[in-house]
Amino acid sequence: xxxxxxxxxxxxxQEYGATRSYWISRELIANGHSVTMLSSHxxxxxxxxxxxxxxxxxxxxxxxxxxxxxxxVFRRLWSFLSFMFKSTWIAYKEEKLDLVIVTSVxxxxxxxxxxxxxxxxxxxxxxxxxxxxxxxxxxxxxxxKLAQKMAFWFERTIYKNAxxxxxxxxxxxxxxxxxDIPQSKVSMIPNMSKIDYFWPRPPDSNLIAKFGLKQDxxxxxxxxxxxxxxxxxxxxDAISYFKNDENIxxxxxxxxxxxxxxxxxxxxxxxxxxxFLGRLPMKELSxxxxxxxxxxxxxxNFPIFATHSPNKLFDALSAGKPIIxxxxxxxxxxxxxxxxxxxxxxxxxxxxxxxxxxxxENPKLCEKMGLNARKLAETKYDxxxxxxxxxxxxxxxxxxxxxxx
Length: 405
Known about the structure:
The protein has 15 helices and 14 strands. The chain is α/β, with parallel strands linked by helices. The protein has two domains: 2-191 and 382-404, Glycogen Phosphorylase B (Rossmann fold); 205-381, Glycogen Phosphorylase B (Rossmann fold, 3-Layer(aba) Sandwich). An eight-stranded mixed beta sheet has the order 3-4-2-1-5-6-7-8, with helices on both faces. Strands 11-10-9-12-13-14 form a six-stranded parallel beta sheet, sandwiched between helices. Helix 12 links the parallel strand 13 (323-325) and strand 14 (341-343). The mean pLDDT is 94.
């Protein structure tokens, strides 16, 4: 089949960001499909408004639509709408398409798929990474009641018109089904571990020295987005309990809307044990995560985040790190059931501090949890397993399309 894959924030392993769509595309190509990826430029590295590239067998169409996590609400909305209209026109001009795959967020990426279905009768699969519009509503970014009603109507319209829906967590699955969508139309394929990119090995002492870390300190990693959703102030509040303990160090990797303010807060509190390494491509990120003893996966205290399927959790599993989560959803169940991490109260930063200290004082427990994490990544969540599941969904839909023809 000729597949159009729409993902506004498509990333390759050489870039900073989530690479799920890249691995799925590679698997679909390996299964005999052709894949055209429709995405946006995240940097002004070209003057062209539209640019087409071949990347590892994927035909990628980049639309020049700026976006940055540091943008305010209205600039983000303009970016979403700009990509929505531009991608619809480009998608409409693509010829001989058999299937469209759309991955959110934002929810607006579903619009071109709706147009292609209504006008050209091309079926589409919709992948739900986060339950929009519930996320911006709970966080206070979408307060207008009329806008909320329109957003919920648009969400249901996409779900009802999709040939199939893929969700990334049990909570997201339930959220979709609650919209009167039959369970047979919905699959759950979570985010992926990358066991060949993140794996446990002896830490590089040269890197430790390069970043000004102590060789024998207990190192706590946070890597990924640093925005209002990620519970970053909660982490800083917990670090205050270790202000005079330089044998516990905190290593931040990533970026986002509040990265600068976090650095300024740590500086103002005179923390000597925090290190911000910035945004890193996957290879460097893997090397730096490997320096650490435990990984944090945190969110702000909103109920909707219990449904999330965070990339950093699955990369931490691959890296063989004990994981501390503060969401009471399925990630809590995962780390507790498989004994690969601990849950902390999202309202009590002192609980996070106590659990970090507990792991530091119990290296055998840390080692056991790390081994369990790696085993879980290898046996259940590796991309080789989950990309195959995704390809199987596409294969069943392909058979139905062929039958109709």
